[in-house]
Structure formats: C-alpha cells, structure tokens
Amino acid sequence: MHLSRLLTVGLLPQLSYTLSIPSRRAVDCGFSTSANSGDTCESFASSWGLTVDELKSLNPGVSCPKIDTDGFYCVVGTVTDDEPTVASPSSTTRLSTQVPSPTVKSTSTVKPSPTKEPSGNGIETPGAIQDGMVSNCNKFHEVKSTTTCQGILNYNKISLEDFVKWNPAVGKDCSNLWQGTSACVGIIGGSPSPTTTAKPSPTTPGNAIKTPTPIQDGMVPNCNKFHFIGDTTTCQGILNYDKISLADFVKWNPAVGKDCSNLWKGTNACVGVIGSTPTPTTTTKPPTNSNGITTPLPIQDGMVSNCNKFHPVKSTTTCQGILDYNKITLADFVKWNPAVGKDCSNLWQNTNACVGVVGFTPTPTSTAGNGIKTPSPIQSGMVKNCIKFHHIKPTTTCQGVLDYNKITLAQFFKWNPAVGKDCSGLWKDTHACVGVA
C-alpha cells in the first residue's frame, strides 16, 4: 500500500501526523518552473506557497539553501512514498486546485487605514480592509507582501469572479490588491467548490503542435508559434519581432486584454496560428505621411495619419509630462494615439507618440475661476472649484492622500476623475484636488 501526498501551490494545510522518511520516493510532477536570479530555496519555495521541506520533497536532488537558477524545479506534483515504518493516518489528504499562472501583477504597497465598521453578520471584520467589501463576509484572508491573487484563490477554493465580487476594490484583474489588508474569501450562504486539478503538462492540440506551459487562459487551440514572455518583454516588442498586429495578438491571447495591459511574465503567448501569414509593417523605412512629415519608428498602433509633431517616450516619460511639455489636452492626445487608452495607462516606452497634427494650435488650459491658483501639472478633469491641492510624489499613495487630508476615496475620485474609481490611475509628479469650495 502506498501513501500519496499532493503538494499544490497556495494550499498548504498543516498535516496532523508525522511520517518516517522512506528510502524510496516517486514524484509525479505536474508543473515545473525555474527560479529567479538571487533566489534561495526559501524565497523560491515561499513564492510558490511551499515550505523548503516540501520543495525538497518534490525535488529530491535539490541542494539548499542556495538554488541553481538555471534549473527547473517541480512546484506542483504528487509524492508517493513506500510503506512507512510508523503508523500512517487512516486517510490521505488530497487537495484539488487549479495550477496558477505566473503573474506580473504585484500587490500595491499602499498602507490603508483600518476600518472600524462591523460587518453586521456577527462576524468581526478585521482592519484594515479595502473599500467596498461586501457586508456579509464571514471569512477573511490576510494579504502579506508575498501574497498573490492566485494564491488566495487556490488556498480558499474560490473563483476570481467571486473574489472580485466580494472585494471590488481589487479590480477586475485583481491588479489592485493591497498589502496589509484583509480580503473577503467567503460569505454567508456561500460554499466554495474546489475546482478540479489542472495538470499543466504540455498539451498537443489537434494541430499536432506541442503547446509549451505555462500559458494564459483562453489561448486559441490552433496556435502553431509561441513567444516566451521574459522579464523585459513588452507587447510592442512581441508585435515587432513576430510581425503581427495587436488585434491578432489579442484575438489569439484574449487574457492579455484589449490593450495588452495584462501580459504575464513567465508565460508563453501565441504569435501564430495555422493558416495565418504574418504581414510585416514597413519598419526598414519610416513611413512618410501625406503631409510630407516622416513618422519616426516605432509607434503604437492607430496613430493618426496627419501627425506633424512627435514626442519620444522614454523610461521616465509620463503622460502628464507629455501633455504639459506640448501644451495639449489628454483628450487630444488620446484622439491622436488611441492605443494609449482613455486614461493613458497603456503608453509604451521606446515608442514615438503624436503630439500635434496639421492645422492644430496648442491652447494652454484655462485657469480656475475661483480665485485660487491651480498648480501644474494636474490630471485632466479636475473640478474647477478646487481650493486645496496635494502634490503626488514618487512615494505618494492614494491611501496616504486620503488619510492625510481626511477625505474619502469617493470624494477624491469625484474631484479627480482621471485617477479612476480604484485610484489606479494616479500619476506621480502631478497635483490632485483634496478640497473644494
């Protein structure tokens, strides 16, 4: 008789028994990955929700505390031991979970203020929490510096849809999860149902092309060409290298989002399908518009054809900086460069953006009519009756602004709509309104 232990990412209940170490052990690995530069056994194991002992159990030959970053290590799998020499428990604990996809979305470092509002269901709500948590929550998960959304979902056997519904402030893609808070992972009347274990071994779809893992959800099944997403990979870099359009890339990899803002590091993306022939854009010779102005490359998709003035986007460039320097509005900038998104959250580095078109004359923004001098730069849409401002420095957080000025997120968003309902669009080196007449 054999005892199997399934070690899974993010689900690590304490075992209530002790086993002797058998002389032989078999590991059926479901998912392997490599360590990052500078990782130790402890940091690598922790990043995948494992203890060092569990990492060693899944990888019998691993040498700790250092870890070889060139190797691949099993982080999800089944360890089968020979009959132990001491009494084993009467039943085997098997945990079922979806294998998480690597994520580049790190938790925010803002420090929210504790809330003292009770949930009203008799369950004490820990502080701090993010705004908008449902009032009938009866189970909470503390968000630490190493906590990931996928880890929360796996550990509590809940779906992303439920998690976002119970914690709307985290955002649809869970990109706004705050450290130092407690998130809702269960409600009265809700019974989490664990999903079946997904074994991420490479698949071979009907096209006989082996699909590497991991991948993001929803990739088309007829993919025949893949691109690995490294730490420095950008969407534009993928499009340029593989000579494909953003529209095709999103169609083949819908999980990345329409603006490619949800591209995950450490995954493989589809960059070609059966029957498609990449059509390269003219990259060897910069295009010349009908206005006689040569357009510098690279650019983001959809730039207007009558552009006559360009701004290089460097690593330190911000949208607000572009607007201020060129004396243009966000509305015009988005109209000329639609790929950057309505809130300019998808501005790509190392591209050239359009900041002027034929027939356009820059018009400085008007000053406020309330007698209060408005500092600049500011984000678009700030209310006209603002009388108090807060300078947003590189270390400033939304929660810090709210706490310092004793205002609510609802008020802050109302006075500064460009920051977004979850304050994810707050720009550094701008001035935000924190008080009105």
UniProtKB/TrEMBL annotation:
Kindly indicate whether the keyword Signal belongs to this entry.
Answer: yes
Q: Polar residues composition bias: which ranges?
A: 87-118
Entries under Gene3D superfamilies matching the protein? LysM domain (3.10.350.10)
- As given in the record, the signal peptide range reads 1-18
Q: Which SUPFAM superfamilies match?
A: LysM domain
Q: Name one Pfam family in it.
A: LysM
The protein's name is: LysM domain-containing protein
- Please report the organism this UniProt entry assigns to the protein: Fusarium sarcochroum
